[in-house]
Amino acid sequence: xxxxxxxxxxxxxxxxxxxxxxxxxxxxxxxxxxxxxxxxxxxxxxxxxxxxxxxxxxxxxxxxxxxxxxxxxxxxxxxxxxxxxxxxxxxxxxxxxxxxxxxxxxxxxxxxxxxxxxxxxxxxxxxxxxxxxxxxxxxxxxxxxxxxxxxxxxxxxxxxxxxxxxxxxxxxxxxxxxxxxxxxxxxxxxxxxxxxxxxxxxxxxxxxxxxxxxxxxxxxxxxxxxxxxxxxxxxxxxxxxxxxxxxxxxxxxxxxxxxxxxxxxxxxxxxxxxxxxxxxxxxxxxxxxxxxxxxxxxxxxxxxxxxxxxxxxxxxxxxxxxxxxxxxxxxxxxxxx
Length: 337
Prior knowledge:
One of its GO terms (molecular function) is ATP binding. Belongs to the ABC transporter superfamily. InterPro entries: AAA+_ATPase, ABC_transp_ATP-bind, ABC_transporter-like_ATP-bd, ABC_transporter-like_CS, Oligopep_ABC_C, P-loop_NTPase. The protein is α/β, with parallel strands linked by helices. The protein folds into 2 domains: about 10-20 and about 25-220, 3-Layer(aba) Sandwich (Rossmann fold), CATH 3.40.50; about 245-335, no CATH class. Helix content is about 35%, strand content about 20%. The longest helix is centred in the middle third of the chain and has 18 residues, at about 185-200. The chain is globular.
């Protein structure tokens, strides 16, 4: 029996709540999440706006302390003292979706990339470190970009500068929040190829936060689909996207042009995180329940009344759905595992 390697980052039982205003109920933005990221692994965290994925990413970065739950990195618990967080943020870096907003227009490219070195009081050759980071990010020769300002660069070049700013501290993990959302289609592929090459060359791990399942297919080893504060389906990207078990995942995939499926239009808006429904949290919008398929499978009552457990954070295919658990396809998937 092989021993499962310790994940680089592991979150267990994470809950993040925000108090409501003027007596309103507490919002459960992250409502029970287990998630592991292995060394050299790219995990895509996928879901529509408002599902809690950005709050989860901020919590994993140490920017928000969890209300309950724990995060470990390299097998050690994450501490929230200032010195511990500073050391952690050297090893885990953030790449934001809008390079125009995250780059100071008054700073040169050199200063933007060197900022992290100065914060962490880097003792080596600053110029050499900045040049290496820019080169790794695909801006070559790097010296050509030192004295340029963000407005003098293309959108793709600005995103590469942001990536270089993360790479300069030689992190082990990057968290990329919608890393290509603001870029033209012609540039998106170049940035995704860059992230993949960084994984292959440096052994870099990444959590890619996105609403785009097509992006997840192109870059991720594993995907975690999030709905209303909780991961509802997870597993290797090929299994989840080729044979989605959860109705929510099926609906997200149906709108991709290459899916060939009839687009599924979900009823209503995502529920308020301060009023999470009982039973399956997706049941009020579920196309399987609405069509009568859940009733025919004998699980409609469960869908409306019986809550589902938190999925484990490992790399096996898992789904939080009463209907999927009752269907032959799901049983075959479990048997294959």
